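Section 3.1 - Work completed
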Amino acid sequence: MKKNRRNTLISILLSASLLGFTANPLNELHSPMVHAAMVKQNVPAKPSGSSSSSTNLQGDKTVTSKTTVSDDKASSDKANHSAFLVKRGGSLTLNNSVIAKTGETTSEDNSNFFGQNAGLLVTNGGTANVNNLTETTSGNGANAVFATGSNSTIKLNNAKINTTKNSSRGLDATQKGTITATNTNISTNGSHSATLATDRGGGTVTLNTGNLKTTGDGSPIIYSTGKINVKNVQGNASGAEAAVIEGANNINAVDSHLTANKNNGVMLYQSMSGDSEEGTASFTMKGGSLTSKVTDGSKGTTNHTGALFYVTNTKANVNLNNVKLTNTSDTLIRAAGDRWGTSGSNGGKLTFTATKQTLAGNVEVASGSSVNLTLKDGSSLTGSINSANTKGTTKLTLGSNSTWTVTKDSHLTTLIASKTSLKNIKSNGHTIYYDKNSSSNSWLDGQTYKLSGGGKLTPAS
């Protein structure tokens, strides 16, 4: 999803020597494009001692002090060179300017992690304030705007950005770098080229108002191994999910409209590559809309496609508040094992909270996975929960003013509700089975209850 690992072993080892560590050719094989058998092998944690300062970063225009540039046309066609490089605490103010970057990278790792070959690159302690920017990049590994290292900061206002080759993202922050942007439109055409991204070592990217478009394979609108916040954004990904979170990181979207056309709507996972800390991935969305045009069984880069929300090999939280959801398939949520992690213990463990939310579609939970779904503040679900009766764990908390319209027989490990709120379950003649041995279900007294619509709630045999 994130990187196209097509470098030869020689180029990988050369990249490693630049970074000061011994590379394992499998180190970054966390992309869904990577063959499953390869990912199952052990991969190391984050390389010790790697930092942007140990990479040979170069710029055609290098800023190390307070500098203002206006009405400029900057370009770089040299391999591994940025058009602008801000370093050593330098401060760049760039107004009404054009950047064109055509040179190629010789190391995708250096480009992905540290911004080598980016159009505008700001490193440890550097700052850039950019107004009215037009930027194009057309070289592999040519990210447009890149902040890497602690206290590296970019502020961007009114920008038009286009990248055309692989591994060339729009806004990208790593190693705790920060980018804050407003009124910025970004399009990317290469593979593994999200419009907004964070990568190894984490970073923060914030965008208020913009149009985002990706067409390449494995190029979601947003790819987070850090913190990404968007507001008033319109985004469309032709060859990937709308949003992907890897590891203990997050995406927060407000009043935004995101559309996916391949794989799933939103994916939360852990690749075990060392790019992100293990922990809980978090996707929060308030207002706006989320659309997936992927049908069940569509070919994609994972073993499972078609879900509006797909979770594998990680713990994850999804929080939705009054979001318009549209899904071509009938799968709302899928939690399952996939090609990442160790088979048998790589399921998805999802906590999903719906507030003032309309949900439609089935909840699928594979053996070894879990879904904890809460419907509150007038939320509704139309669909089934674990209709396949797998050994996955399911928990439904049904608020007193929320409803569930059942479309298939369903299986719950735990139901948290009240006997009076059972009237909020519209069964359509279907049966809901619950685990009478679970202490959380003791309020049901192991009994069978008739439900509205002719169905029943009954203990599993």
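Second construct:
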Amino acid sequence: MGKKTALLCSIFMGLSLAGCGAATTPEIIMPEQPMQSSAAPVQQAAPDAGATGADAADAAVPADGETAASGKNYTVYLITMDLTDSYWKSIDDGCLQAVSELGGITYKWTGPDAHDDALQSACVDGAVADGANAILIAANSAEGVNASLAKASEAGCKIVYVDSAATYDCVTALSTDNVAAGRTAGETMKAALQEQGITEGTIGIMGVTVDTASCVARETGFREAFEGTAFTLAETVYMQDDVANVKQAVADGLSQNYIGFFGTNEGTTVGIGEAAKEAGAETVIVGFDTSDAVLALVSEGVIHATMQQNPSVMGHDGMTIAIQSLEGTYTDTNTKTDTGVTVITKESM
């Protein structure tokens, strides 16, 4: 494997792209020891109270400073699954911090209006047309955007996955080890149930879509945690960009005396919490991500625990490694960095 050395850079970034799409999510080749980025650690930046994903997507962000060691300027895009989830804003915050540190950068965040492979592919195509040298992408599915990513690669564009990878080759993929994180979520729920003396019963599981790889992996780990127990895990209900699907599933589950619910992302976690709160039900809820809405429900005791990821690190280190790859100082390919999770409960807040 190649070594990462100096990281110098400059990036030029492009025009606005509205609603785009594609689908991808792969098996990334993992080294025996997860790669550690040479980027300096970064604390998650606080979102601008007045900013939204759409606002961020509508304006390129230039940063003054020195150009890269090679004297070149680079265009880099962040393309997420949508522009509405606050989780993506945290990745954007990390990118912005790296842009500020590296200097001489114009940076662009864009994405589709909904989880859609064709729309995300259009975003990739638009970035390439705008002269992107590197794309940081949270792939909507495992295969759906591969054709556009292949064209991007043929044009000389470096591909870095953040949060959710596709099966197409990349420089690196920065994400939570989602199976391990899902297993942690399952163990957290088991412990909470055992504290209440509950050793059997049915647990509801809420997913995003059938091919959102990161969430599917979390579900896999969660189910593994309950293997060999007397608990029953219900079939997954998918949100499909409509939180009403989650709320109805929770209502149905409560009517059948489900003892707990697991949300695989921010949207499903909030949907479960709101439904349980509206019903005045006492049930064990474990979810993912730490938006203001999720944390408020945790602080109220509605949600027992949520898995805190490190999206700003994904953005910061992903941007840094993309530039290192363009500069030739990072030469590894298809590596994976686990950015980890922390269990957040009311007591730990």
